[in-house]
Amino acid sequence: MNNHEPAIPSRPLILAPAGDRTAFLAALAAGADEIYCGLRHFSARMAAENFTIEELVPLTLLAHDKGVGVHVALNTLLKPDELHTAARLLQQLNSHVKPDGIIIQDLAFVDLACQIGFKGEIHLSTLSNVSFPAALEQIQNSFGVRRVVLPRELNIDEVKAMAMACPKGLDLEIFIHGALCYGVSGRCYWSSYLGGKSGLRGRCVQPCRRVYRQKDRNNRFFSCWDLSLDVLVKVLMKIPQIRTWKIEGRKKGPHTVFYTIKAYRMLRDHGADPKVKKEALELLSYTLGRSGTHYHFLPQRPQNPIHLDSRTGSGLFVGTVKGTAQQPFLNPKEMLLPGDLIRIGYEDEKWHRTVRMARYIPKGGRLVLKPLWKKNGAKNIPVFLIDRREKDLMDKITRLEKNLIQTPVLPPSRSVFTEQHSKRFEKKKKITNLIVFRQPGNIKPYDTTGLWLSKQSAAKLPKKLRSRIWWWLPPVIWPENEKEFTEIIDLLQNTGARHFVLNAPWQHALFKDVKKIILWAGPFCNIANASAIRILVSMGFKGAIVTPELGQKDYLMLPGQSPLPLGVILYGSWPLCVSRVLSDRLETGMLFTSPKGEAAWATKIESDYWVYPNWRLDLNAHRKTLEKQGYRLFVNLMEPIPKNVSLKKRPGLWNWEVGLL
User: Fold this and answer.
1) H/E run at residue 39
2) DSSP H helical ranges for 402-508
3) What is the pLDDT of residues 565-599, one digit of tens each?
């Protein structure tokens, strides 16, 4: 950690996003306590402009000179052949930029940071899905993590439960403003499923924002409003473990960054003053985002973030196009300034376009547009203000730019990273076929069978069969479920259960004694490289089921590097995502379709909603190849199919041929 103190050490720090140089400087101008940004590799916002090492050095020096911390997001999944590149990048950061910390989701970075002697802090991204209290002590003890970013889906009571369990020396960070994903963080594969562009790799194409059809209804059934805690942040002031308030928005321009920071500084420092509170809320209403929601923050008044009767395009809605396709025009609901950027249409519509304003247009004035290319003319096409470069703000940025130090071309760092070749697992280990069910009705005593762990499934299964089952923990465990799962696990262990598949590494914390059991890391742990597997070894795992997102090259490379036996999802239903919400106008157990004819359905499992495509993942054609490379556990996920759903025959190869981008 660099030796500088935050501006207001007794209050929560405001952590601001920066996707480019102007946004970084806008964050400084607004008085952010910390700034987080990404590089052009290994960032979960690859659509942002991001930074090179050379660009980040003078900006970080300027930030540190002003007492502002800088954190670099390296929060993507690493493929088997990327470890050396990632280590060199981390080494260059450590040598030249000297950030205060890195934000990660892949445990490989814990291993790499140790190898190169990284001097900053390690923060676990919300993509890591640290969702229950007992995980926190496990994380601090096992990984040396200094800060954990909590899931956006938690309500204030759940946040307090996390805070109560937070050990000394570990800080918590919480999102207070910005875009909401439909899926639970780290549990969405939708974009990857439809072409290899993985959200866990920062390349999400946002399929949840698109229009879908169910029965006779077309709508954006999964497109969420933005999170905006606004005045509710006063509740967080009373929780000292919440050290940082985080603003999402590394794809946003300087206007949004500047005024969002200003608003939350006002609410933090003078929120009891009604006039200040009113002014802060006015600033937030003009930060060029979607409409705001408190989401689940208030458990007694939860808000579903999906509002089908309102527009959820990014940017401030300023009106709809009028006139004809050949003579379209706009009467804006807000004044438009020279330099403003407006978008005509939604960002997921291929025909949308952006227009940079050349002159001032008053509120209610007339902006003549170029002829439209849309066949059905100008009817109801929305227009959004997506960026603003007002003179006062740009003058502030220009003054800060004058203080930047000219950085000479940096010499390439000599790599100190050496690939660690752990003793490989025994390739002759027997091959196991595992069939995983939701309910125990189809289980036979001679099968090698898995069962999703729940209170109901454990109670229904005869005691004599419990020792034969591979018990699968869910991909998300919420704070209110922690006690129940701990009790179920104790019961199962006391009656002979030995095999458990964990779908987050920190679910290890739910076990009082792991000496007599066999733990495997499940596919939702998103394991894709040898360095992450070495961390699992140190925790006592006996095997790992790799992420099913991988392409052929990655699948075949990994066993030769792994110190643990590996498993693979060979066949079955894999979710597009897991979510905590569902539109009240979307029926469960009923297919919905995209404009391209891709169909899926949603179903409720325990307290969450799982969204499944209507085709199965199927790598059976490549099983012999996978066996030859060393895979020893082949998993079949047998999910119940709703009676209203008929599965489509598709190859089901996922990214096997296209590769994981």
Assistant:
1) none
2) 455-460, 463-466, 482-494
3) 999 999 999 999 999 999 999 999 999 999 888 99
Calculate the dihedral angle through the C-alpha atoms of 236, 239, 244, 246, rounding to the nearest 10 degrees: -30
Instruction: Give dist(CA 610, CA 464) in Å, integer.
Output: 31
Q: What would the pLDDT profile of 622-659 be if each residue is shown by its tens digit?
A: 999 999 999 999 999 999 999 999 999 888 999 999 99
DSSP string, 108-146: HHHHHHHHHT--SEEEE-GGG---STTHHHHHHHHH---
Token code pair at residue 108: 């490989």
Q: d(Cα 327, Cα 149) in Å, to the nearest integer?
A: 49
pTM of the model: 0.93
Task: Answer whether 189's CB lies under 8 Å from 574's CB.
Answer: yes
Residue 105's closest CA among 34, 200, 39, 198? 200
Q: Which position has the token pair 């290994």?
A: 42
Q: What's the residue count for the chain?
A: 661
Side-chain-side CA neighbours of 391 within 13 Å: the count stands at: 3
The token duo for 540 is 């006592």
Q: What is the 3-state secondary structure (H, E, C) of 533-581?
A: HHHHHHHCCCEEECCCCCCHHHHHHHHHCCCCCEEEEEEECCCCEEECC
3-state secondary structure of 350: coil
Alpha-carbon span 539 to 505, nearest angstrom:
9
If we measure between CA atoms, which residue out of 633, 421, 645 comes closest to residue 546?
Answer: 633
Cβ atoms of 209 and 224 closer than 8 Å: no
The span from the CA of 216 to the CA of 214, in Å, is: 6
Question: Residue 363 corresponds to which tokens in the numbers above?
Answer: 């509120």
Single-letter code of the amino acid located at 635: V
Q: Which token pair is 186?
A: 């780290």
- 122 pairs with which residues across the strands? 102
Give the C-alpha distances (Å, rounded to integers) separating 577 from 29, 183, 389: 38, 6, 37
Contact criterion met (CB below 8 Å) for 466 and 451: no
Selection from 152, 286, 314, 155 nearest residue 220 by Cα: 314
Are the CB atoms for 525 and 473 separated by under 8 Å? no
pLDDT, position 255: 95
Select from 510, 429, 516, 434 the least CA-distant residue to 470.
Answer: 434
Give the Cβ contact number of residue 659 at 10 Å: 13
Instruction: Sort strands 566-572 and 633-638 into parallel, antiparallel or unpaired.
Output: parallel
Q: What DSSP line would sit under 204-230, residue for residue?
A: ---GGGS-EEETTEEE-TTPPPEEE-G
CA 543, CA 564: separation in Å to the nearest integer?
Answer: 5
Least confident of 222-231, 300-309, 346-355: 346-355
Transcribe 58-85 into DSSP letters.
HHHHHHHHTT-EEEEEE-SPPPTT-HHH
Contact 127, 186 (CB under 8 A): yes
**Number of Cβ within a 10 Å radius of residue 454:** 21
136 Cβ partners below 8 Å, 6+ apart? 130, 148, 162, 165, 166, 167, 170
Residues 6+ apart with CB under 8 A from 214: 221, 586, 587, 590, 591, 592, 593
Residues 625 and 416: their CA atoms lie apart, in Å, by 35
Question: Does the pLDDT value for residue 120 go beyond 50?
Answer: yes
User: For residue 94, what is the DSSP state?
Assistant: I
Two structure tokens written together for 219:
């709508």
